[in-house]
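Troubleshooting entry. Yesterday's outputs looked truncated, so today I'm pasting the complete records for two proteins to confirm everything comes through intact. If either block looks cut off, that's the bug. Protein one:
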Amino acid sequence: MKAVHVFVTGSVQGVGYRQGCRSTARSLQLVGWVRNLADGRVEMFAQGSDEGIHRLLDWVWAGPSGARVLGVESDVVATDPTLTDFFIQPDERI
């Protein structure tokens, strides 16, 4: 099992990015979360099979049709055994 912590920059808020991310992650049988950040980025934590993580990261670069991804930063991190689903967290507040 592998886990990644990801930050996505570009035009990624207000375009269905989080919903698309959740749908894609669930279809790949991954667990984790995604949320909008106050600075305009999207933050994500995902864990599951190496292949599933690889395929999700491919999707992250493309995003939904209305998104314009300019950059993706991802780090391999420790897994979270408490997660059982992939969900959208509330937006970060300033």
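Protein two, checking that the full record survives here as well:
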Amino acid sequence: MKIRTLIIGYVLALGLFLFAKRHPDASSPTEFRAVIDLTHATDVHALAYEPTAKSSPELFGTRIDAPAYFARGLWTVDQIPTERLIAPLVVLDVRANTANHPDYQISVEDIAKWEQAHNQIPLGAVVMARTGWDSRWKSLKDYRNADLNGTMHFPGYSQDAVKFLIEGRDAIGLGIDTLSIDYGPSKDLPVRQYTLAHSVYQLENVANLDRAPAAGGMVVVAPTKLESGSDGPVRILALMR
């Protein structure tokens, strides 16, 4: 327990140091009143883990995909610049749209509604989509939500929304509380390919977005530093002012 506490403290201290270095006029670290863990625990009981699979359980849980996942020559996990691992946090709450539409794709209109309520998304933010899907985490069947043909059904981002976030708001990371930022039925994963091709990393299976602030918070993204890795496990911490 002491070791775990020290690790969490180290990650938080490192994140705050990097943010202060990048933003000399940033608020004092003492102004953060809470730290929220946005990470699902991963062990042999992790519900995304299939005991019959050849993969280890570490291949599941909260994940990061680096730009190199689809495009050689772009950043691998260990090459993502450290200054891009701490950023303003934006949480888009789209549960009203996903409740009865599992294949819902987050739209530019959803982003516009967020900005009407909270002002413009800050440049260089990590944007998270709160679809409510993590409430299904304890059931592999419900989480994947596959039909009789094996096609999965869960929410994701639309291509237009992602283009706006990246080109119009300079987002450096996109996250979601589902298996992928592409919606479940997607076959060629256009959103993932576009995002990674623009050197924007992805965060999947994000947890506890109900506890994270919609606006005004910061996020610390701490992936395992896998040399030449295109994806891997990640610890995500939301800092609340």
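Both blocks look complete. Sanity check on protein two: The radius of gyration is 17 Å.
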